[in-house]
Amino acid sequence: MPLFFFDIYNDLVTEDEDGMEFADRDVAMHRARAEAQNLAAESIRERGHLILDHRIVLRDESGDKVGEVRFEDVVEIKPTEGSQERRPL
Hints:
This protein is of the alpha+beta class.
């Protein structure tokens, strides 16, 4: 199975040195989306903020970038139901 690396770009840059095996790029991207959701939630819980352009970059075994998931791609911000008023974030 192919090896994929998940580099995290949030408050710190963490390059994945170990990688994980997945059947293909699509399965690895699905995992990257789930991890981005977890990291976004953690950022809100622990730091009280969310920076939408933080991201996970997916690399293949040769080190080539094969995908990217930004926090803004996995988080939806909605106004309160029934309210037309928008509050600043």
